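During the reporting period the student researcher (J.K.) took over the structure-prediction task from the postdoctoral fellow and processed the backlog of single-chain submissions. One of the processed entries is reproduced below for the supervisory committee.
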Amino acid sequence: MATIETVYTGGLRTEATHVQSGNKITTDAPTDNNGRGEFFSPTDMVAAALGSCMLTIMDLAAGRLGVDLTGTRLEIQKVMAAEPRRICEIVIDFRMPGSYDDKTRRILENAAHTCPVSKSLHPDLKQTIRFHYR
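J.K. obtained the following C-alpha cells:
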C-alpha cells in the first residue's frame, strides 16, 4: 500500500495526501520557475524534510538524556544550482533552547548528522549544519 498519494492539480501544483492520516500538502513551483510561490516547492520540502528529520532524531537522543528540546528553532536555507537545476546546498542553523554540556552537545549533533534523510541525499548536495546554543 502507498504511503503517499499525489495528484497533479494543474498550474504547476500538486496535492500530496499522507494515506495513514489523511493530511494533505500542496506544492507550487517557485516564482523563479514560473510558479506562484504560494506553497512550499518540492525542493523546499526536501530542505524542510532534512531539518525535521534531524530534529526528530535529535529529540530521540535527547529523550534518552533527559533533555527537552521544545522550542528548538531551525532556520533553513536552500541554495539552488542552475545547470542542471538542482539543490546544491542546504544550510541549517539550529537555535537550541539550552546551553548543554559538551557531552550532550556531541550526542545531539551526532544524532542530527545520522538522520535517514541526511543519509539518503546525494553526497554532492552540501549540508552545512550549524548549532547555536544559549
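The committee noted the following: The longest strand covers residues 86-95.
J.K. will present the remaining backlog at the next meeting.
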